[in-house]
Sequence to fold (276 residues):
Amino acid sequence: MIRTGDPRRLGLPASEARLRFEAERQKAGDGPRRRLLMVDGEPAFELSLYCWSCPLLFRRLETSGQKLSLENVRERLTGALDDPDGGGVIEAFGALLPEGEYLPLLLSVEPRLVVPGQEGDYFSGEQVETWGIGQFWGLPEYPHTPYYRTFETPVDADAHLYEFVVPMVPPTWNQRDRVEEYITLMEGGTVPTAVAISTLDVCEPAAGMPADHYRHWGLTHFLLDGHHKLEAAATAGRPVRLLSLLTLGESLAEAGECARLPALRAQPRSARTAVG
Fold:
């Protein structure tokens, strides 16, 4: 954690915003409504269900293919942002978002790229230890995208915070020359800044699930700007700054839980040891 801003109202009416959250319409007899992150009117990600006892989820959908970088702040973000309010960055990206309350968090992250199903994958690791294998498919949840793990820490004896950075498009879509450019800058001491809209989803399994029962706090950052920066940082083993705009109205968390994030994010990184 570097700095926290005050909660503020940002964004445009949902019909005008490039990015918005939406609950899928439900037909009679269907299961729970899907919770969706929409980009330019198309479903980009399926998110954790509204049921609270369901596992954490971010799943890239076939219609996800757009980045939301802004050229007018690109130069400002090439280096380290020292204040969430610096350079009009929040206002610039706020114009892409749906109207609502947001908590700005300026973080330092050291990303580690994870491929689903491989070493370090939350969905086939920690999540399975708590919820078990999905009953319908008989498989772990599958996010359909590589993603970055950046931080984790205890919340209390019965809860643990996991942090993820999720690219809007997979790293294989990145331009190799731009990734190499950022690697060179980072090796020379530059710490660039990325920007994300973020959700906090607090999920707890129902009674009778596997023995390692605790609440999972999932802090998920969906990249608006910084796809090349995050890949470069993961490749070079370097830190990058992340300006997170945490949506307070669209997170599956209580107001008090969101208010605890700055203090939790300032704790030392610490993995959880499974019990049972």
